[in-house]
Amino acid sequence: MPLPIVEFRDVAKRFGHLVVLEGVTLSIQRGESIVIIGASGSGKSVMLKHIVGLLKPESGQVWFDGTRIDTLPERQLMLIRQRCGFLFQMGALFDSLTVGENIAFPLVEHTRKNPDEIRQVVAHRLAMVGLPGVEYKMPAELSGGQKKRVALARAIALDPEVILYDEPTTGLDPVRADVINELIIKLQRELHTTSIVVTHDMASAFKIADRIVMLHAGKLIIDGSPQQIKDSTNPIVHHFVVGEADEKELSVLKG
Amino acid sequence: MPVRLIEQVGRQTTNALASLGDFAQFAGRTFVSMGPSWFRWKNVRLILPQMYDVGTMSVPVVSVVGAFIGMVLAVEGYTQFKALGQEARMGSVINVSVIKQIGPVLAAVMLAGRVGGALTAELGTMNVTEQLDAMRVMGADPIRVLVIPRFLACILLTPLLTIYSDFLGVLGGWLISVKSLGIPNDPYWHYSALGVDNWQIFEGITKSIFFGAAIGLIGCYKGFTSGAGASGVGKACTESFVTSFMAIIILNFFFAQVSKDWYIAIYGVTSMFGS
Ligand SMILES: Nc1ncnc2c1ncn2[C@@H]1O[C@H](COP(=O)(O)OP(=O)(O)OP(=O)(O)O)[C@@H](O)[C@H]1O
Ligand SMILES: [Mg+2]
Predict the structure, then answer these.
(1) Which protein residue's CA is at the shortest distance from atom 14 of ligand 1?
(2) What is this model's ipTM?
(3) Is A206 an 8 Å CB contact of chain B?
(4) Is residue A145, in this structure, part of any structural domain at all?
(5) pLDDT, tens digit, for every residue of B213-243?
(6) Beta A18-28 vs A219-224: how paired, if at all?
(7) Which residue's C-alpha comes closest to atom 5 of ligand 1?
(8) pTM for the whole thing?
């Protein structure tokens, strides 16, 4: 088995008394496209943030391409982070910069491209997410879904090896969501990026994933191919996949 | 009951010490990151917009405060000095107060409100909307990109604004004393020059640099550590102002102490009322 690009070893994370992750173990291979599903608040975003060292586990280890990163100082983390693109759940665009400057930010920081080359990359990335020509708008002038796509354009600006997508299709119309699915697949096929995707959107999950894991109560309760997830007899997985609430969850609605 | 009280006092002390430690670490990281390698065009270009925000936008507030302080000192002092028949000596008292104490302190307090509050609000919002995290993920250190330019703008512009405010304070004092209360012009300036020497001007400006540093660092730190949501940012802004204000007042005390000792060591004791 080759060296995994990302590896969680028995990771536990708490915020005060709230236990979010306990004993998460997962290896992700280079070039793989893995989807993390799980209920709202189950800790999916928290898991992604561990991969780039924005959060540190209470116990356990996080590895990136053979380097243990949970104990790494900021300065060395920078080098790891340059190899990753991160699409934040809320976009996290810099609201004092234009759309173009947002996408140019990683290019200005890490490449020696001249302003013309940067403009070209920015225009190309915006075209990829279906928003050509919005360079000079401010993020505040965009709709929620447009912000998300600009954020995606920024996340892929540097052609990263690993792209972390936190709910890339939430807030998009079904057609646009499918374009983003295709984009994720295309990036993975053509540039051999590793995609780690958090989503609630099962259609999207089945379309993109080589492999799906589900986070529940701080643990990964299933890890398998899309077909194995569909066929799972685990009631929690089954309810999530078909999008049905169980008796207990519905009981709050009854008088 | 007493046990709980002690426990609470203990916890609060620990919290206060812990946040002081965090702040020291934040300040330390800022200074370490500000080595010679910071001063490249890529970074330096970030200072200019901050200078505009801190500087230009603060001129009206600071001038109004400065002018009115000079004027108030003149109005208040006049009756007392008049009773002694010494109204010409008012110049020294007004101008020493403006240049050494009230000018720098009030200008800094105004800036703590206007600039410190804005810094905390901006960086706090960036914190709660994950923009700081986004920056870190893109391999850029927010201290380098956000904190240092703002810190430098505060350090550079607080003294300039203080000088400006002092100038208007001197003008305001003169206007009321000479133009309105009829104190003769030449003696007024004569005594002013006796009261204010280079040392005092130097002290006023030096401390304004430290006040600026406190405003910038505290403003940025409070933004970086703000709690979640709009309420978290609001709370951080209030704390930022209150903390900067206290820092200014306390720094001012230490400055007075140190400056007095040095002055006496260098010049010996001199009277403000001249001879
Ligand atoms: N910085 C933080 N401080 C305190 N608690 C946090 C923090 N980040 C996340 N949490 C808590 O951790 C839990 C998991 O959060 P997370 O954002 O990972 O959920 P999620 O699975 O991404 O949910 P969603 O699908 O709604 O985005 C939540 O209960 C949240 O309140
Ligand atoms: Mg989330």
Answers:
(1) A43
(2) 0.90
(3) no
(4) no
(5) 999 999 999 999 998 888 899 999 999 999 9
(6) unpaired
(7) A15
(8) 0.87
Chain B hits for A153, Cβ within 8 Å: none
Chain A residues with beta carbon closer than 8 angstroms to that of B125: 95
Distance CA B174, CA B181 (A): 10
Tokens describing residue B189: 């300036």
Q: Are A109 and A134 in contact (CB under 8 A)?
A: no
Distance CA B45, CA B57 (A): 19
Environment of ion ligand 2 (residues, CB < 5 A): A 45, 89
B36 Cβ under 8 Å from any chain A Cβ? no
Pocket test for ligand 1, best of A11, A14, A15, A165 (most atoms within 8 A of CB): A15
Q: Where are the domains of chain B?
A: 41-261
Burial class (CB in 10 A: 0-12, 13-18, 19+), B166: buried
Best residue of A81, A83, A125, A161 to probe chain B, by most B CBs closer than 10 Å: A81
Q: Which helix (H) or strand (E) holds A124?
A: helix A115-128
Cα dihedral: A144, A155, A47, A176 (round 10): 40
For residue A245, give the CATH number of its domain: 3.40.50.300
Q: How high does pLDDT run on average in chain B?
A: 89
* Separate counts of helices (H) and strands (E) for chain A: 10, 10
Do B137 and A54 lie within an 8 Å CB cutoff? yes
A37 within 8 A of A214, measured Cβ to Cβ? yes
Q: Which residues form the domain of A79?
A: 1-83+211-255
Q: What are the backbone angles phi and psi of residue A5, rounded to the nearest 5°? A: -75, -35
pLDDT at B275: 47
pLDDT tens sequence across B101-152: 888 999 999 999 989 999 999 999 999 999 999 999 998 889 999 999 999 9
- Phi/psi region, residue B138 (left: phi>0; alpha: psi -120 to 50; beta: rest), is alpha
Domains contained in chain A, number: 1
- Indicate the DSSP class of residue B34: T
Q: Ligand 1: which of A17, A46, A87 to mutate, most ligand atoms within 8 Å of CB?
A: A46
Q: Rounded CA gap, B15 and B10, in Å?
A: 9
Q: Report the gap between the CA of B248 and the closest CA in chain A (Å).
A: 30
- Interhelix angle A144-155/A174-191, rounded to 10 degrees, is 0
Residue A148 domain-assigned (yes or no): no
Is A160 a member of any domain?
A: no
**Cβ–Cβ under 8 Å, residues B210 and B250:** no
Residue A38 CA: which ligand 1 atom is closest? Answer: 21
pLDDT of A107 reads 92
Residue nearest to atom 3 of ligand 1 (CA): A15
- Would you say residue A255 has pLDDT above 70? no
